[in-house]
Amino acid sequence: ERIGSATSLSSAIINTRLQELVKLFKERTEKVKEKLVDPDVTSDDESPVASPAKPAPAAAPVPPLGGEVEEDKPSGDDHYCEMLCCTFKYRPWLDRLKSYQFPSSIDPLTNLMYVLWLFFVVMAWNWNCWLIPVRWAFPYQTPANIHCWLLVDYLCDLIYLLDILVFQTRLQFVQGGDIITDKKAMKENYLRSQRFKMDVLCLLPLDFFYFKIGVNPLLRFPRCLKYMAFFEFNNRLEAILTKAYIYRVIRTTAYLLYSLHVNSCLYYWASAYEGLGSTTWVYDGEGNSYIRCYYWAVKTLITIGGLPDPKTLFEIVFQLLNYFTGVFAFSVMIGQMRDVVGAATAGQTYYRSCMDSTIKYMNFYKIPRTVQNRVKTWYEYTWHSQGMLDESELLVQLPDKMRLDIAIDVNYNIVSKVALFQGCDRQMIFDMLKRLRSVVYLPNDYVCKKGEIGREMYIIQAGQVQVLGGPDGKSVLVTLKAGSVFGEISLLAAGGANRRTANVIAHGFANLFILEKKDLNEILVHYPESQKLLRKKAKKMLKSNNKPKDEKGGPGDALIIPPKAETPKLFKAALAATGRMGGKGPLGRLRWRLRELKEMQAAQVSMGRMEISPSRCLRSKARASAGGVRRLCCTPLYVFHLFCLFLLQGSSFSPTPPKSPVHQRSPVTSHKVQTRPGEISSESSDRLVTVRVIPTAQEDEEILAAEISEKEDKEKGEK
């Protein structure tokens, strides 16, 4: 016995171990299959980082003829170390500066170095535009400081020259849809452009006339013709600024200040021409000349009034031209400023118009005040958090490839972490990213409710949501934060599996990405392998989610149409046993007794019909009475009826439904047996066979019982 128990124990251990091995092999097979579907999928274990390859040892230097080995010298690769633990030859920044190579071609649209260079060019251009009129009109340029003015002038000329020789000849351009980076082609393109002609014109060497007429700042007026660099710098700077409208406002204000600056210079020149203090209209020469003239220019251009009347013809003509120029320039500045401010507040204006239209609509239909307050809160939070009401409106005008690039940068890190989509085709995930829709939920808003059909998957971009459950449905089961995903199984579940199992509400303001089921189905049409993988994963995830409930014996979902009851196993076993025993046993005796009843019924003048309604009961039960009577109960009752037909072999039964639930026998004298309340029974004259109809606790169920007394068995045994 001990040997047998030890053998059984060892076999049980071996079977358990074999089952574990089979399970491990299945998991490994699934992982390999997923890798074959998508080669980009990596294993769960992190790959070990490869150690850096060691350089091959350098060949030993050939010793000199004298046989002496030279001492070690610091190599050219030595670097500067802050710990001073290594020998070094050059400091790192010096080494990088010496090894730096100027790019052979420059992208004018994206290269920030080019934008920085344009800034220096514009500063040189502004020096000429602002100070040439001042040096010409006001007596600020004197022989004592002439060398400082000339030094800055020629420094600006050097910047102009470097721009022509170094930068403009290296600018890339587009020809026939291709970006040209060839040095010769870029140089020829610049030489044929209008920009080159203006750059050469602004560097006319009129400074040689200084030797004949003296240093006159008007000879440098061509330097102001490099205005194309100024407008190019404006375009490049606005493209990289996050709030470009601020720069536009500053630039428009600079236009106005420059016009006033030129007018003040002209007024001082006119005063000097007429004679300082010669009339009440001209500048009297007191105080700071530039400030006094600038004040007069502001009052004239803005037409404030309060100016002295001109006396001479020259003064009258100058004042008329000044008025006309001031009105025109000031109106242009006002219009441009309005456009700049309007463009800066275009989004805010659109937001206010949408808000006003919505409030008007809600007031017209008398929407409750609480709902109106929530709508206003949604508008305000969405605008302040996103700066827009609908993100998709900005991306509609972009090409499909650019929209994909933006979607990858914004959403790919979140979507790639969803377990349902791991292992799928990468292009399918890219197509799915373009279908994501951003939605903002207010505090305590229901994201989804228990029992509703799930047609979306949610990805939390910002904020938190809470999953509610418990008996009252208000207990917080878990709190999901940014980056979490829920509702992904509903995208592929069928039947009743796509119903929400819990309430999910927003805890505070929450910004979610939504992927609808119809969008995913449209994408999966083009990716059949990913569709199979997703359905398989959804079934596995759904099975794992339902497994704990099944183990605990929790009630499952109620079925709308209950499954049809199968034939009782006891009844099937009884049929098989009857065939093997050759008619012996209780069922055999029941068959023999039914044959005797058939012969007795045939002897009567009028044969009673045995009618059994299949709708009398829906289940099967078998029990044995303790009073020495064997009882056989079979359900469904109609199956028992067919069994009796088989035993009787040809006895006729009425196909019409019965008029009474009582099973009638032939008019042989029958004895009523004492029954329980509501029970109907009838027995044969020899009291060996008793048929009972027993009610159950349910109204639509009854039990048909056929009892055979054991006395017959004893008599038969004695014979």
TrEMBL record:
Residues 420-524 form the Cyclic nucleotide-binding domain. Pfam families: cNMP_binding (PF00027). One of its GO terms (cellular component) is photoreceptor outer segment. CDD domains: CAP_ED. It is found in: Membrane. It is a multi-pass membrane protein. Keywords: cGMP, cGMP-binding, Ion channel, Ion transport, Ligand-gated ion channel, Membrane, Nucleotide-binding, Sensory transduction, Transmembrane, Transmembrane helix, Transport, Vision. It catalyses: Na(+)(in) = Na(+)(out); K(+)(in) = K(+)(out). One of its GO terms (molecular function) is intracellularly cGMP-activated cation channel activity. InterPro entries: CNG_cation_channel, cNMP-bd_CS, cNMP-bd_dom, cNMP-bd_dom_sf, RmlC-like_jellyroll. Residues 54-64 have a biased composition (Pro residues). It comes from the Eukaryota. Residues 33-74, 655-687 are annotated as: Disordered. GO terms for biological process: retina homeostasis; visual perception. The keyword Ion transport applies. This is Cyclic nucleotide-gated cation channel beta-1.
